[in-house]
Amino acid sequence: MGQRKASTDGDRKVGRRALLIGGLAAATGTAVLARDELARLWWRTPGVEKPRKEGEVDYAGARWVAASDANWRRADRPDDFGIDTVIVHVTQGSFDSAVKAFQDPGHKAATHYIVRQDGHVTQMIRELDVAYHAGNRDYNERSVGIEHEGFVDRPQDFTDEMYEASARLTARICARYDIPVDREHIIGHVEVPGTDHTDPGPHWDWKKYMRLVREARTAPA
């Protein structure tokens, strides 16, 4: 491009009224940001938390079985940590062995949900709270983890009932937190930065699963 000519409009000094209006807008924006930050800090204050009921589930189709307190951290999401991701896991074992592991304080890990091969859903940690499932603190704080009964090298373990039940669960989580139904926000454990896990593995049918999630997301409640 050639040499730029000075524009009288572009070089015009900003008037006092424009400064006042601009300052007001900036102050308003700052006030909104400050209010949001104060809300986040409020929910991080010790002793401040949302009302809870023992045994309450976040997903109507789930049965509650509590994980060990050592395998998750109390929080008040999404007020203290926003939720924008669902992480898909595979248990590498039976449903019963996964439940037992998540109830073991020495295991140091658990997901929010486990989906059995017959489609049964068990919730072990409230979505309010941070589950130790991703192997990455940032992803733990911003995600909901769902385990699926089976082994990564056995495609027969991923039944239609499992896919359908899990898709309905994921669709409800996405609706609750306004999470986009796409592969940037619904990911496998293997896709979490820094993880050494390979699940859900090469036999997990992402195309089928995402189609089912979209169908469940748009279906009447």
UniProtKB/TrEMBL annotation:
Residues 72-201 form the N-acetylmuramoyl-L-alanine amidase domain. Pfam families: Amidase_2. It catalyses: Hydrolyzes the link between N-acetylmuramoyl residues and L-amino acid residues in certain cell-wall glycopeptides. It comes from the Bacteria. InterPro entries: Amidase/PGRP_sf, Amidase_domain, NAMLAA_amidase_2. The keyword Cell membrane does not apply. It is an enzyme of class 3 (hydrolase). Keywords: Cell wall biogenesis/degradation, Hydrolase. The keyword Acetylation does not apply. Its EC number is 3.5.1.28. Coiled coil: none annotated. This is N-acetylmuramoyl-L-alanine amidase. The lineage of its organism: Bacteria, Bacillati, Actinomycetota, Actinomycetes, Kitasatosporales.
